[in-house]
Specification:
heterodimer, A: four-stranded antiparallel sheet, 6 strands, 36% strand
Chain lengths: 116, 422
Amino acid sequence: MKFLMTYAAGPRTAPPTPEHMAAIAKFSQDMAVQGILLMTGGLQRPTRGTQLKLAGGKFTATDGPFAETKELIDGFALVQTKSREEAVEVARRFMNVAGDGDGEILQVFDPMDQAP
Amino acid sequence: MRDPEPDRAIRAAFRLESPRLIATLTRIVRDVGVAEELAQDALVAALEQWPATGVPDNPGAWLMAAAKNRAINAIRRRKMRHRKHEELGREVDSVSDWAAADLEASLDDDIGDDLLRLVFAACHPVLPPAARVALTLRLLGGLTTDEIARAFLVPEPTIAQRIVRAKRTLAEQNVPFEVPRGEELGPRLASVLSVVYLVFNEGYVATSSDDVMRPELCEDALRLGRILAALAPAEPEVLGLLALMELTASRSVARATGSGEPVRLMEQNRGLWDRVQIERGLAALSRAEALAAARGPYALQAAIVACHARARKAEETDWARIAALYAELGEVAPSPVVALNRAVAVSMAEGAAAGLARVDALREEPALAGYHLLPSARAEMLEKLGRMEEARGEFERAASLTRNARQRERLLGRAARCGRGA
């Protein structure tokens, strides 16, 4: 199973120290070596991204909201694990290294996963 | 009754640590079976304590410490029973050895080497191939015997027994816990790679069942392949195999329709191919090709799959290059199946008549006698040449030879279309 994980550091987090960044890099390296981490990336602050909407055929793109927002998604990872529980454990370990924040785990759709 | 939720979370945390735990313990106790028992003891301890304390920040170190305590206690218990003087001396020594060993720290240091040693032990040629597969999935993949049994569609006791026997054989034959060197390395590495590829193919082809594929086995094999590539980054065939598996698996979603009908390579919706996985595969392939002057069988097969992966449309496929790669593969690892695939590539590159001449040369090949892809390849070429009656007969023959029900259905459908004299 594959899962997309996102992580948003807490709102008043100071910029990470080089040691902190090194610890996160070491964790990522470890997960890659174990064949779990398939892809990872950081997401740029301070925007929350551009919000997209298609409603009744009308497309809108709204920037922001900017820095004052409470949720900043700071990174994402694509992982492959044997179960959702395992993905949660990987996320738990990551967040222990990365620090306070919020995250989300979304299972990547794969028709094969539904095979009996 | 216990709440199953925390148990599942604990087992998931354990599974992540299990290969490294067993690898480190094996280095110390020099016995895979004992190491695995100690790891299981540690899991039992975790299941008892973690529901109250929560999963510790560093579960690996916690489990290692628990395994160490179990080992020391077991030695002490034995000591209480046997009070013979010299035994006492020896056992006290082993207790202090254990107590002194900084096992938690050793988890981080030589872990790569330990894991590699464990892979080579699990895939040792003293074991029958089926045992190598079961032991590798158990020890390196962290699968339970029940999961392995379900994946291979055999009863759980069969797998359990296979693993018990394999561990006993390794102990009885005194198989050293080491990475082979020199001349020994090549054949031993080949054994490891063939185990991983066998797991992958069992998942991808699923010959013994009517499912199109069993994705868990493919994912297990991919994970093993990625671990190996990290452990032995200078071995071109390790990277070749990883590339082959990543590139092959990148098509898995496109291989079947929503209702499970198989879709052949040239008819697949290439937009469904996993581009991230293709990039991973191509990267592994270029690393493999950079490491070796001559490509090995896995790298060559990966290079062939890469030709398909690079073609955004089926008609852009570089069949001449594929035919040349099959020719090279036929030199390195000659086999009738490679010759057949080369014939198919030639028919695509140069026309059905050229392909048919090559396939016809293989018709008497005993190794291909029951192989459905020979008549189905002939059938396609005959169909292109307008020899419909012969094509129909060959599609029917192919259908009678495949064990996969969906494939059979598809082949009979194609036979019927030839019959209509299209």
